[in-house]
Amino acid sequence: MTIHLDHTIVPSRDKAGAARQLAELLAVPRGRAAAGPFTAVYVNDSLTLDFIDTGEAFPVYHFCFRVDDAAFDAILARLDAAGIPWRGEVRGADDRKVGTYGGGRNVYWNQPDGHQWEILTRSYARQPR
C-alpha cells in the first residue's frame, strides 16, 4: 500500500487571506473545503492545505514545496510582484538571495501568521534513489 498525505490543517488569523496569498503564489486552485470550516488550497492532486481561523495561540509551521525550475522562477517572480520579502536561508535577513542548499535552488518567506514557506528545486531531505 502506498501512503499519501491527503491534507493538513493550517491555523490562521485570516484563513481566506492566507489561502488566497499562497494559492496565488503557487498558481494553484483554492476554495471552500468540501467538509468543515476550512478554506482549502489544492496544492496538487493528492494534497490539500486546509486553512482555519483561530483565536488560539498556535506554533509557526514550515511547509516546503518541491517544484521544477520553471515553477521556481515563476513563484519567485510572483513573490517579487507581491512585494513579499524572501531569503535563501531558513533564518536570517530577507536578503533576496537564492539559496543552494542540497545542490538545488531554494528560497523561504513568511506569511502574515508567521508560517514559513519554502520552495526548492531539489530535495535535501531525501537522497536520490
TrEMBL record:
<dbReference type="InterPro" id="IPR029068">
    <property type="entry name" value="Glyas_Bleomycin-R_OHBP_Dase"/>
</dbReference>
<dbReference type="InterPro" id="IPR037523">
    <property type="entry name" value="VOC_core"/>
</dbReference>
<feature type="domain" description="VOC">
    <location>
        <begin position="4"/>
        <end position="122"/>
    </location>
</feature>
<protein>
    <submittedName>
        <fullName>VOC family protein</fullName>
    </submittedName>
</protein>
